[in-house]
Design goal:
The chain is an alpha/beta fold. It has two domains: 138 residues, NAD(P)-binding Rossmann-like Domain (Rossmann fold), CATH 3.40.50.720; 185 residues, Dihydrodipicolinate Reductase, domain 2, CATH 3.30.360. A seven-stranded mixed beta sheet has the order 3-4-2-1-5-6-7, sandwiched between helices. A six-stranded mixed beta sheet has the order 9-8-10-13-12-11. Helix 1 packs across helix 8, helix 3 runs parallel beside helix 5 and helix 3 packs across helix 8. The radius of gyration is 20 Å and the shape is globular. The protein starts with a strand and ends in a 5-residue tail after the last helix. The protein binds NADP nicotinamide-adenine-dinucleotide phosphate and ligand 3JN. Ligand 3JN binds next to loops.
Length: 339
Amino acid sequence: MASSYNVAVVGATGAVGGVMLKLLEERSFPVKDIRALASSRSAGQTVIFDGVEVEVEELTPESFEGIQIALFSAGGARSKEFAPAAVAAGAVVIDNSSAFRQEPNVPLVVPEVNPEDIKWHEGIIANPNCSTIQMVVALKPIYDAVGIERIIVTTFQSVSGTGNKAIEELFSQAESVLESGEVAVNVYPHQIAFNVLPHIEHFHESGYTNEEVKMVNETRKIFGDPKIGVSATCVRVPVYNAHSEAVNIQTTRPISVEEVRRLMLSAPGVTLVDNPDADEYPMPLIAEGRDDVFVGRIRDDDSAENSLNLWVVSDNLRKGAATNAIQIAELLAAGGLLK
Ligand code: NAP
Ligand code: 3JN
């Protein structure tokens, strides 16, 4: 095993790519050489890594010579087009898009849930969708303790999940509304400032959105449980960063609220914030900039047998994307699974 690695960040100028660069540094990932890749629009610009300016290069099939780890977050079309070239060059691709998530030969990995799945990769490992990641991290200890039959989830997703243009749009719309100016609507089908949109990505014929369908399929693949019932409603809210989720579960065997609290206290990657008497519960402003999944408002649901409600919040750019991807890279390095 090498002691340090040549790492490419594909989409280095984006919201996720920027956090990846920051986290590689913050987590002291052993980087020998960093390659920042983006579109021709950004070629020649610089990004900062480890206090040093790195020139952004245009993504091409030749970009991966000598690269051992390629972190992709430039959209599914770029992943489909360029990940095979990265693999052919000897890199392991950790892909943040949905391009390969349901491929049978591509592990879909959340290190707190199914770390063992990295072992059977054939060059590409997929990072799940942010909304799925935070939910399965919170539910894994309960799943292992008593089984879960059914999950009903409603998400409250921040605009950073849509990328840099959406972050700018929320800020500029909020400013326009407060100044009674004209609100420009470009990124979403409607104004997002001071509004709520029950619509994330395109609608399927079923009436569900693509984000909702991803949550169902990804949860089943990560838990290795094709039968688990999952029903999702995904909502975009005018929050800058960190997704929140109201999660209702029906367990196979009974479990008390106290037992769930106890499980959360020892769960990897989870911080319990559940003290309603002191107005303490997870919120985006608590989760932002942190790597954990925050869980609170744990309570019995008396309307159905073996049912519970939880409130789950996490920084979608960190644990929902960059942190999860870099944890996978750390597992690969620790397991001697890199060339
Ligand atoms: P973003 O802020 O809009 O950034 C997009 C990045 O992709 C930029 O670096 C952009 O480069 C690059 N890019 C776009 N077109 C390209 C091309 N033709 N060739 C090379 N690079 C290109 O978006 P983001 O929020 O970072 O998200 C990027 C992708 O990550 C998403 O499309 C999605 O697949 C994935 N993602 C995953 C999750 C998750 O839940 N795990 C969450 C968010 C995003 P330029 O600056 O040069 O345009
Ligand atoms: O909208 C969010 O909050 C999360 C967005 C994720 C996303 C955005 C564009 C394309 C994805 C994803 O990771 O599922 C994709 C994609 O399908 O690659």
